Each structure stands twice: as C-alpha cells, then as structure tokens.
Amino acid sequence: MLVFWIHAAVAVFAVMNPLGNVPVFLALTANQAPADRQALARRCSLFALLIVVFFTLLGQGILQLFGITLDAFRVAGGILLFMIAFNLLQGRSSQVHHPSPADNSESLTKDDIAVVPLATPILAGPGTIATVMALDGAGGGISWINALLIIAAAGAVVLVTFLLFYNADRVRAHISQTAINLLARMMGLILTTVAVQMVAAGLKGLFPGLG
C-alpha cells in the first residue's frame, strides 16, 4: 500500500506541479492584498481537493454511465498526460492546464478566481482528473482502499500546494526561475513515464494479444 501511495503522490505532484504554478498564482493575484491572496490560496486548494475526491470516488461510475471502458480511458488519459509532459520537458506551460492570455485577462476581472481558473484547470484540470481515475482502476486490491490511498496522496500534494501558494511571495523570492524550470522538466520526465505506463496498460486491456 505504501508503494501505491508513493506512486500516486508522485504522479499527482508531477501533473499538478505546485511549485511551477506559484508564478501563475502570483500573476493572477498581483492586485490583491496579502491577506486576500492567502484566503484565496485556502479556497482554491480546498476546491481542487474536492474535485479530485469527486472524480476518484465517482469517476468510474461516470465512465460506465457513458459506456467507456477503463482501458480506453487509460489510453486517452495517457495521451493527454504525454501532451502535458512534453510541454513541461520543453519548459512551456500546457494549454490543457493553463488558460489562454484572454482567459487570464477575464479572470482578473472576476471577484473570485478560486474555482476557475485556479482550482480547475490549473490545479485539478483534465490531466489531474485523468491521473486519479486511471490510478483508481490500476491499483489492484480492494477498490475503496485504493480510493482512500489516492485521496490521501492527492491531499498531501494539495497541502504542499496550499503552503506554497500561501507563502508565494517568499517562495518566489528564494527560488529562481531557472530552478522552477529545472523542476518542471524533472516533473515532465516523471509524467512521461506515467503516461507511457497508462497507455501500455490500456492497450494491453483493449488488445489482450499484445500481452
């Protein structure tokens, strides 16, 4: 169980990329007072965790409702993760997780950006959702234990995200952009491996002859 929890935590951390999103958080909250920014960090972290919990517990039921097999979802999710990972390896922000400049400009005019775009798609976007749903179906053993382990892993990552966002000014002052870019590339490499594993498991399920 510990190995599965570590695997889930690393996968969610790689796709959520808390440290790499600190500059994004600072940019979106540039005109806010420190107290308001910290309150926003609490809300967006909570909403991101709720999104992850929702899709961890109900994701497979949603797939069954639409007649989608878990193996097909693994392949699709793996391709999506690979696209995100490729952008991270290139030092670019993925459009899947980061809104366009026009969307950012619109967000700055909103009273509360905790849900959109911070909680989703920046933190708990399609890549994060695909990751937790694929992990839930690939853990083996008792399903509710797998779900609890995934939620616990995601909770740990969200806690780290909250602490980074809460102290975003100090984090940005002590960590150079070069270090952030290096970490993003490392996370991209890890995420690439996770994506390949997801696609391989999905293809093996869809085409048993490949195994």
| Secondary-structure element string | HHHHHHHHHH
Oligomer: single chain
Query: How big is the Rg?
Result: 17 Å
The gross shape turns out to be globular
Alpha carbon gap, first and last residue: 25 Å
- DSSP strand (E) fraction? under 5%
Short description:
With about 210 residues, the chain is mostly helical.
Describe the structure.
The chain is mainly α. It has one domain (2-28, 38-206). 79% of the residues lie in helices and 0% in strands. It is built from ten helices and no strands. The protein has helices at 2-16, 22-28, 34-65, 70-89, 101-108, 114-123, 126-138, 143-166, 168-174, 177-206. The longest helix is centred in the first third of the chain and has 32 residues, at 34-65. The protein is globular. The two termini are 25 Å apart.
